[in-house]
Amino acid sequence: MSKIELSNFEKKIIVRNITHDDFDQIFALQKVCFPNMEPWKRAHLESHLKLFPEGQFCVEYDGEIIGSCSSLVINFDEYDDKHTWDDITDEGYITNHNPEGYNLYGIEVMVHPEYQGMKIGKRLYEARKDLARKMNLKSIIIGGRIPNYHKYEKELSPREYVEEVTNKNIYDPVLTFQIMNGFSVMRINPGYLPDDKASAKFATLMEWNNIDYRPTTKRHFKTSFPVRITVIQYMMKQIESFEEFAKQVEYYVDVAYDFGSDFAVFPEIFTTQLMSFLDEKVPSTAIRKLAEYTEDYIELFTDLAVKYNVNIIGGSHFVEEDDNVYNIAYLFRRDGTIEKQYKIHVTPNERKWWGIQPGNKVNVFDTDCGKIAIQICYDIQFPELARYAVDQGANIIFVPFCTDDRQGYLRVRYCAQARAVENQVYTVIAGTVGNLTQVENMDIQYAQSGIFTPSDFEFARDGIIGECNPNIETVVVGDVDLEILRRQRKSGTVRQLRDRRKDLFEIKYNNIK
């Protein structure tokens, strides 16, 4: 099997600012999203980019604009409580945009109906929140439609309808979404959008408060940089098809999304679960049959990362390239891009049973949560690799592992915790549990997955953010703070990175660029 070209599977999704070249696609998108409402004019969008380009966002997926949003900055106290959309936007031209204002006001969000369910709206809302934090604004205010209200207009007042939606007795595609994204209802404005018949011209005035706002200055201070991680302790058990495997995997990615995670982490070679239905007893032959599912595996995880808006450490998988088999861990970013890390140190067991070949390069990957590295199981037991990754900027080292007994597990755990201390870095281990009774060399598993920190006052007392109970199928969720890590490296009780005696010793890496 030839080497797989990952770019063939990438489906890149980007949140970025709108440019003039996007206008035609935005006009087309508006016609699809709001067919019964008056669309933007080119002069509107020209004015938006002229006055406040950083407040206009779109989502691009494989070169197509599938979502957009517009906003301006105002002093909300200067507007009447019962203002209309035309009042707040100067009839859509936002010429009332005030760079010295205190509130970001959202005036439109569009998501193409064919791409709903991919968290496109959430990405746009998060872009607005990031902008509000960056500009040190007090809040984001929106006049939200209630497009399902026309179905209940004869039996419920607007206030009663909003209460029913808030109490989750009625679903409204806009209001429900806004509540789930942290917005609270301030009041209901009549006549907000005259051509919005579905909402009976009503709108909910809603607000999201920026808790990082500093009232004494317009400057934005970074007080923390939390990154949420969900570690999956995956149960190895008999399955009958790839579709069954995919269903189990999606369940856990959904769990990570529900917890608001930035990363979902799967264990090493957990895809060997597929061997339970391949009906091949010879390990070296079975592993090459497993490698035939590589494209299905990559496509599955790429789709899930984009759909659930979470970066996925896809455990690791046996891949055949140029007649050799490698143990490869993949990073599936939530923007649709993919990276990979070959296992560098192959265990005697992997050589004996499967003929696995080693990789030759330590990678450090950029993500929307800073730089990270992946070191597969045995690799974390070689301290030089972690030191190199941290020297290249890694703040988190993810360690997918697969061990069959407690001794093997403890080697991984103790070394991961040692790497966290000696390199002032977060480490995350994710292992398999259960058994595959019909699969040679994968019969038993032992794991207790966890998230570890350096050892100092700023971190958890025992250097453990969270850990699973051993040998059961479960997850652990925890937050690591990159800002605390940055400060601790500079002024901690001990500073291993800064205090190394480079005049006495150094590590030389061969053939690493």
UniProtKB/TrEMBL annotation:
Pfam families: Acetyltransf_1, CN_hydrolase
InterPro entries in UniProt: Acyl_CoA_acyltransferase, C-N_Hydrolase, C-N_Hydrolase_sf, GNAT_dom, UPF0012_CS
Segments forming domain N-acetyltransferase: 13-211
Domain CN hydrolase: residue ranges: 227-482
Highest taxon in the source lineage: Bacteria
GO molecular function: acyltransferase activity, transferring groups other than amino-acyl groups; hydrolase activity
Keywords carried by this UniProt record: Hydrolase
Entry similarity comment: Belongs to the carbon-nitrogen hydrolase superfamily. NIT1/NIT2 family.
Protein name: Predicted amidohydrolase
Organism: Gracilibacillus ureilyticus
